[in-house]
Amino acid sequence: MDIFLHALAESLSWQSVAATFFGAIVGLVFGAIPGLTYSMALAMVLPITFTMSNTPAIAMLLGTYIGGMTGGAVSAILIGVPGTPSAAATVLDGEKMARQGKASIAIGIATISGCIGGVLSLMVMLVSVDALARVAISFGPAEITALVVFGLSTICGLSGGSLVKGLIGGVIGLMLMNIGQDPIDAVPRFTFGFTTMLQGVDLLVAMIGLFAVPHVVSVLATYWRGKELHIQTGDVRTEMPSFRLLISQKWNFLRSAAIGTIVGAIPGTGGPIAAFLAYDQAKRWSKTPETFGKGEVAGVVAPEASNHAVTGGAMIPLIGLGIPGDPATAIILGGLLIHGIQPGPLLFMEKPDVISSIYILFVLAYAITTLIQLFGVRVFVKALSIPPHLMAIGILVMCVIGSFAIRNSLFDVGVMCIVGFIAYWLIKAQIPVTPILLGLVLGPTLERESRTALIMSEGDMSIFVTSGPALAFWVLAVVIVAGQFIASMRERKAARTALAKPNEPAAIQETTA
Amino acid sequence: MTTKRDFTERVGLSAAAALGLMLVPMEAARADFPEKQVEMVTLFGGPAQTISQVLADMMSKNLPKPVITVSRPGGGGAIGYTYTQAAAPDGYTIVFNSSSISTVYYQGNLPFDYKAFAPIAQIGVEVPVLAVRADSGWKDLKSMVDATKAANKKLRVGISGLGSFTHLASAALFNRVGLQVIYIPYGEGRAPAELLGGRIDAALQWSSQFAPHVKAGTINVLCMTSKAKVELAVETVTCDSAGAAGLDQTIWRGLAAPAGTPPEVIAKLEEATKKAVESPEFVKAAQNLGFNPLFKSAKEFGAAVAAEDKEIGELMTELGLNKKK
Amino acid sequence: MTSLARDRLVGAVLLVVAIVWIALVLRTFPPAMVDSPTSSRTFPLASGIGLAVLSAIVLFGTFLPKKDGAEAGKVITVDALEWRSIAATFGFMITYFVALKYVGFVLATLVVLAAFLFFVLGKRSPWLLIGYPAGFAFGVWFILGKLMAVYLPRGELINLF
Fold first, then answer.
1. In this structure, are B118 and B255 located in the same domain?
2. Would B228 be classed as within a structural domain?
3. Which of A21, A200, B116, B178 lies most in the core, judged by the most C-beta atoms within 10 Å?
């Protein structure tokens, strides 16, 4: 108890609070700008922490990490371009809510969901960091392959009208990510002998092109048609989500946080996968799945609760075993090491005060980030009162800067334009965006993990089904695909019977659109 | 407190830098190098990037203008090398390079080799170690080799990537002891988890990654791949003395500028690097990160790079990975 | 264009893309480096074949008799204003890309934004024409470039700051 009180006093000193605040602000700014991510924010604040004492240094790193995760939702909701890959699923319903004039509620609920998701994941970490870390490392390439296939099976549920077109989207996403250097053999693919082409298509760059470019084109077209939507500042109510609304989402919070914590704890996965799985599950468990994608609150709660739970999940192997699961936690590990803190099983015995501090600072970072966000909502929604065509040009500039900043490479800016161009025509061809995104996010993981697994087993395919977790994910994937198939058969039958009745043609139009 | 100070310092610095740049004409005498910030190109994320940030911080203290790190990852280092090689040879663009210049070149992903750069100084070396799970019962290299040969099976070894330095070093090691090996490529940093998870038999990675597990008694480190013993985060013997006679595989890290950079500019950078590497702050940070500082002057460094390049080329030819032949 | 004709076009274009893709995989990829059941070709080849099959389904589907005639006959067009906004968006990005390459972030943003506002969006208010680009360029330069140490594009010819 003494240790805890001491850690508490140190963690709540004004230095730590100021450091968390600074980190959270940096994180929020980086998170909110598409292309700038929390990994970059962490790399940027890391040198500042070199000269600081231990507790404020950890405070600043955690503040930046958590602020960066939260910031992603702001741009996802306000401009329909996710600030980070983890917030990609938030666009689906968040942007629709903003268009319905509920931007402040959407940001509010995203922030609160994130805070709840994060704190729930911390509680899991508190109770069972050791056991969970062990479970996490039992996930090897074969198990992750099965998990990713399970994730891909959600394409069926998220592809909207035509399943074939949804699958085309997924395949195109996968193909885009195949360009560049092979992740296993390091051989060039589709580079035509150019060294710069080895960079290939970066996930973030592709995401910016996919979301931002078609958005800007359509805003300009509406402007020239003279149909631009003018939102007066007065119309943008800074309304906060009600308590009743939060209570109604309680199971969604728990389910999404659980998904996020587990996925986050497995090295080599991460936020985007967790967010999509949670979104898909929320839709499946919902009583009104048809409202998803049209501004459903649960569709914002699920991805945000889940991707924030990833922060706690990712800390599990980091603290428990000293193993970073993604680039962001690798930078945090670097920051801890520089201060002579070696995470791992011995840290609990040697420096229990540091462990306590990390837990307390984690909560502090969530509290501060949430407060900044909730106060900031008033300012953020003002952005909606800027005429959309002027805003669109600003978005374009920021997207160019963002795609440049990922790897300080103009090549990436070019890729962003090209992917944007392709994406525009794909959307015109009614190929849904979500499966393309899933292909982009999950494709490279699927390739890397499945090929690693096969190298390990010397080509023996049975490696994918010999372990319990892997088998479980395969079964889940099959259940989801089969369920979807049966449901669509029923729908088609229903549509056919409806078609037989000539007085109800409107109904068909609704379902096929 | 530090936050605030850094913040105001940054604002002050940037205002001063802005003014300075506007007043000084573009082409000025080289005697005053550096007149603007120096860009240090880094090629990889992870611990190497952290080291480069510490180094840039320390170098900034010894130069009138700051040194900033600019990350240009991709192509196993090829992107950053290409950028630096194409930059003006004026000393304002330098690269935090490593043995990867040779591996990437021989992999066929780079049209030029180390000769496209003028060496500035070596910063340090990194020595990979071979680790196994403690419950395997293998206490030294010999017991592992004997047990694997007796069981007549292939050893699964985790490395950072096919054709990467850890791949070459482990191939050199296992060829010497005559074991059959399956190399399993993980990204940087995942091999320890896979080793603990029991999916591989051994991993060749950096000692700092194994340190907490060695202390906790779950992992045994068998040997280090350098010929001379160096101080690492984990106490161990050299593979050379443990049965792989003649093995000497280390990675060097240093700084280089595009070929053709004036010698007086190189000399200034070399001096700043020397002060930085030998400063107690750098030594302490490096120790915590599991990095071995080892300063070598431009001349010695150049000779070491050339010698190493030849060795790596031969090794890759031997393994059938050399695409330049 | 009707949605039936659109699907026919989409299917045909994607089928051609898939075939070119598969040809590129087979002809330009170097042979595998190590002995392994999967190689760098496996996934590109699988996705290329996948796209070929799926686009063929879309293409041939358009020749099957359709039940919902109303939907298939819906007319889709890309009108002049849409072409204009496509040209404006990509024209802006290409110009900005080139400007960034040669004159760096601040100058490129000032000039290209002001030019876009004046020539493309037809703005004439001097406040907007000067204020918006300047506010944007210097705001981003100061907050991101200076305070947060984000590396902004530097020009090969000229660099302000």
1. yes
2. yes
3. A200
| Residue C78 Cα, gap to closest chain A Cα (Å) | 9
Residue ranges of domains in chain C: 3-72, 80-147
User: Is B321 within 8 Å of C146 when comparing Cβ atoms?
Assistant: no
B18 occurs within a structural domain: no
Instruction: Count the domains in chain A.
Output: 1
- Domain finish residue from B221, B242, B263: B242
Instruction: List CB contacts (< 8 A) between C34 and chain B.
Output: 162, 183
pLDDT digits (tens, 9 = 90+) for B1-25: 334 444 444 444 444 444 444 444 4
Q: How many whole angstroms separate alpha carbon C69 and alpha carbon A6?
A: 74
Select from A186, A344, A347 the Cβ nearest to the Cβ of B163: A186
User: What strand order describes the sheet that includes B292-296?
Assistant: B67-71, B38-42, B93-98, B251-258, B117-126, B292-296
pLDDT per residue as tens digits for the range C38-93: 888 889 999 999 999 999 999 988 888 765 555 556 677 788 888 999 999 999 99
- What is the residue range of B230's domain? 128-242
Q: Would you call C47 an interface residue with chain A, using a CB distance cutoff of 8 Å?
A: yes
The least confident of A66-70, A154-158, A257-261 is A154-158
Q: Do B212 and A339 touch (CB under 8 A)?
A: no
CATH code of B161's domain: 3.40.190.10
Q: Are strands B292-296 and B117-126 parallel, antiparallel or unpaired?
A: antiparallel
Q: Contact B159/B191 with Cβ under 8 angstroms?
A: yes
Measure CB to CB from residue A452 to each of B6, B73, B186 and give the nearest one.
B186
Residue A506 lies in a domain: no
Do the domain assignments include residue B107? yes
Residues B121 and B132 in one domain: no
Read off the DSSP letter of residue B42.
E
Global pTM? Answer: 0.85
Number of folded domains in chain B? 2
- Cβ(B193)–Cβ(A321) below 8 Å: yes
Residue B92 at interface with chain C, using a CB cutoff of 8 Å: no
The answer to whether the CB of B182 falls within 8 A of the CB of B156 is yes
Å between B50 CA and nearest CA of chain A: 7
